């Protein structure tokens, strides 16, 4: 039986450094708490809008946050940012509710922002070392699995994120053969983001989600780079 102090990230070298972007969020803060308990962790670098001022809608803030880490080896990076409601606008139930400004803002935070994270943070990685890079996506971003409709902007922004992760994985596989880049669905997790929409769904706590995510990421080999997976490691159709 695993105890809370058993290491989850055994596939990373002792003293590994971890960066969590979106460390103020429900899942992001649980990931940080778990990582701080890892017996072999080096530094846990927690970045968020409030602390360190990394705003996904402001490329210069992302560039600056990445520059601050230059020279520090990073073996784990998780981007745990994202929005479902935008500025008080709930996800659309039908096409007639599509609002171009809200849709663009959602794309900015859920897709363009992570692309800029990849642009500025991936060059910091060592070419030869194993590194795990995960972007929190959502199962509803799957096109093949979409049977319910609705939530157009959120679904489409997560589908765009998935394509960005896949494309980045192909580019980086050429120069960084040990890198694992993945888009991961965390499950339905009891956070502010899901609160209005979670009733009737099986939910897990942020702590449980963080354990599953880290356990799954730990087991991924470089051959899993470019995948879209769930918290339990099962693949999700694009
Ligand atoms: N919870 C679920 O059931 C669920 C299900 C599927 C997928 N997901 C995905 O999991 C990820 C984390 O969700 P969560 O449930 O932990 O949500 P959350 O508690 O609302 O956290 C969202 C995080 O995103 C950050 N963020 C939002 N806009 C930002 C911006 N412009 N710049 C920088 N950071 C920004 C927030 O920062 P502030 O604190 O500064 O606002 C916060 O750290 C999201 O990508 C979400 O789509 C969650």
Question: Which structural traits does this protein have?
Answer:
single chain; 238 residues; alpha/beta; six-stranded parallel β-sheet; 5 helices; globular; binds NADP nicotinamide-adenine-dinucleotide phosphate
Task: Please outline the helices and strands.
Blueprint: E1 16-21, H1 26-37, E2 41-47, H2 59-67, E3 76-79, H3 100-121, E4 131-136, H4 152-175, E5 179-185, H5 206-219, E6 227-230
Parallel strand pairs: 1-2, 1-3, 3-4, 4-5, 5-6
The protein binds NADP nicotinamide-adenine-dinucleotide phosphate.
Descriptive notes:
The termini are far apart. By secondary structure, the chain is α/β, with parallel strands linked by helices. The model has no long low-confidence stretch (mean pLDDT 96). The radius of gyration is 17 Å and the shape is globular. The chain has a six-stranded parallel β-sheet with strand order 2-1-3-4-5-6, sandwiched between helices. The protein contains five helices and six strands; from the N terminus they run βαβαβαβαβαβ. The structure holds NADP nicotinamide-adenine-dinucleotide phosphate.
Summary, kept brief:
The protein has 238 residues and is an alpha/beta fold. Helices cover 34% and strands 14% of the residues.
**Structural class by helix and strand composition:** alpha/beta
C-alpha termini separation? 35 Å
Q: H/E series, N to C? A: EHEHEHEHEHE
What is the helical fraction, as a range of percent?
A: 25-40%
């Amino acid at each position: 039986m695993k105890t809370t102090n058993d290491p989850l990230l055994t596939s990373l070298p002792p003293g590994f450094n971890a960066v969590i972007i979106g460390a103020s969020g429900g899942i992001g803060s649980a990931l940080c708490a778990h990582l701080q308990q890892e017996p072999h962790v080096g530094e846990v670098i927690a970045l968020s809008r409030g602390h360190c001022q990394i705003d996904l809608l402001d490329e210069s803030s992302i560039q600056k946050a990445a520059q601050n880490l230059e020279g520090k080896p990073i073996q784990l990076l998780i981007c745990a940012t994202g929005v479902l409601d935008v500025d008080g606008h709930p996800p659309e139930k039908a096409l007639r509710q599509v609002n171009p400004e809200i849709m663009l803002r959602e794309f900015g935070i859920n897709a363009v922002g992570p692309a800029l994270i990849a642009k500025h943070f991936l060059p910091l990685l060592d070419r030869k070392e194993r590194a795990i890079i995960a972007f929190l996506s959502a199962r509803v971003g799957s096109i093949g699995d979409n049977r319910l409709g609705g939530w157009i902007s959120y679904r489409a922004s997560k589908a765009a994120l998935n394509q960005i992760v896949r494309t980045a994985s192909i580019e980086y596989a050429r120069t960084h053969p040990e890198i694992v880049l993945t888009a991961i669905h965390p499950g339905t997790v009891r956070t502010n983001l899901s609160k209005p929409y979670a009733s009737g769904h099986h939910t897990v706590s942020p702590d449980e989600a963080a354990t599953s995510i880290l356990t799954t990421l730990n087991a991924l080999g470089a051959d899993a780079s470019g995948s879209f997976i769930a918290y339990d490691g099962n693949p999700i159709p694009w």
